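Re: the 234-residue chain
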Amino acid sequence: MTQDSGGDATNHFGGFHIQTEPLSDQDVARVELANEVRAMIGEIISTDATVEEIRMVRDQVRAGVAALVARGHAGAEGVNEAALAERRKNFLARSPVLGTINPIAVPLTVTVLQDGPNAIVEGRITFTAPYEGAPGCVHGGFIASAFDEVLGVAQSASGQPGMTANLTVDYRSPTPILRELVFRGWCERVEGRKIFTRGTVHQGDTLCAESTGLFISMRPELFERLLALRETSR
């Protein structure tokens, strides 16, 4: 999840780049389930269980999914507005990169060290075996995704949050799995609606990759429209 080390979040899309509300009991339960799914993903690619044992677990998972499907979804016809409001409030928790509720996220933890036009953020993450590309190394696509999220938080903390227009990653050395990686992102300058960012990722003292990102700021009402479109398309 994203944390803030200080400063006023009220000018950042209502705190878009930080978790502004505590998780509900329902979302805490989602986090617990997501943690188990992450563990299962790791086991799926490495287990020495028999075919019969694997298929037994498959059937158990299938039954669990069926139980959840039967309860409906926020945004579906007949679901009350409280469920939609909760989903909007904890939008970041559902991120595929830093969302604790999203089981495909590792997840990444980002801390805002400084906000405003010269925003600085730090991200920490340990990629596990499911994210392996070259042997023992993180797949480059996941490194790019983490940069997009870290630089995205930096540009959001600038006070004029927007969407990614361009992201460039230069890979400097192999990036190991099962080791904590430290991302650092900062906002270099703002020119009208253009927000220019830069970032690095290190494992210990080793520079693994560098990135630059260009974001285009958007009006808060556009963000609300995107949320509404997402909900009606479910």
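The beta strands are 2-4, 109-114, 120-125, 162-171, 181-191, 194-203, 206-217.
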